[in-house]
């Protein structure tokens, strides 16, 4: 039997139940529009922060598509990092908190991989760029010396 979390009280109920056995809230009640978030959902999301728009599609959190807009997108990335997990919890159907966290962990893992890759490439290019620049300066000096010697 598939279980879902009551969007009002957060307790586990049968997916087919129209009324929560704990708080007696109808599954179709207005309360579901502003549901409580169970423990273990809130928190910073590296996945949402890093992948923003892609994460938003994967987690059915359409407000995250705002991150594709320039400038607004930068702010949206941070908002997604903070609120993303809560939104994803509400917007998509999850088997359990455990399932939710398993999926979000994957997003965060690849987010981490992406961040580390980008930072490593930046450092690597700095290490390549500095000697290249020094070579260029040295060559320019040499050329100038050569030109002076010809005079
Ligand atoms: Zn309930």
UniProtKB/TrEMBL annotation:
This is Uncharacterized protein. The chain crosses the membrane at residues 62-82, 109-133. It comes from the Bacteria. Keywords: Membrane, Transmembrane, Transmembrane helix. It comes from Nitrosomonas mobilis.
